[in-house]
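Z., the sequence and structure:
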Amino acid sequence: MSGPSRNNQYQERVLYQGDPWVRVETLPRLLAESWRRVLSAGGVVSVVRTPFQWVMVSPVIEIETGGYLGDVGLYVPQVQLAEALELLGFEPEEAGGETGS
């Protein structure tokens, strides 16, 4: 699997609820939601950033009824970045130094 993209539509690092979060990838909403399930099963917290809002919980009904399905930013807490990349199958060197401060 290739490493995280460097798409700059969404910031690479953000403060969310007072903590530093790192963008893992920018990808279509449906794919991001499936990655969130993988992360959640592995104990990693994640959040999706649409052009309109932050989304901590994505009810299926929102997706089925035409919620935003374009590209979103998938973020994890900085302290869980290495674990998230491992769960998603990225090699550590593919993180490109994102794990540092």
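The chain is about 25% helix and 25% strand. The CA atoms of residues 30 and 64 lie 10 Å apart.

Let me know what you think.
H.
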